[in-house]
Amino acid sequence: MEDDRKELFVMEDSVRPGILVLINDADWELEGEDKYELKTGDNIVFVSTLHGG
Predict the structure, then answer these.
(1) Looking at the record's lineage, which domain of life comes first (predicted)?
(2) 3 neighbors 35 (Cβ within 8 angstroms)
């Protein structure tokens, strides 16, 4: 990810705890995590599982 907001999602070269990553509506763990090669048209979603209460 080449963006100035990278720190929102990445910590020490891994996805931050509390962030769910979906690739084409499937958990990225099912897609091979960081081994998955993005393709044109892929839909990537980052969802925070943390919330205030």
Answers:
(1) Eukaryota
(2) no
How does pLDDT run along the chain (53 residues), one tens digit per residue? 566 777 778 888 888 888 899 999 999 888 888 889 999 999 999 888 887 65
DSSP 28-51: GGGGTGGGPPP-TT--EEEEE---
Contact 49, 21 (CB under 8 A): no
Domain range list for the chain: 6-48
**Are the C-beta atoms of 1 and 24 separated by less than 8 Å?**
no
CATH topology of domain 6-48: Ubiquitin-like (UB roll) (3.10.20)
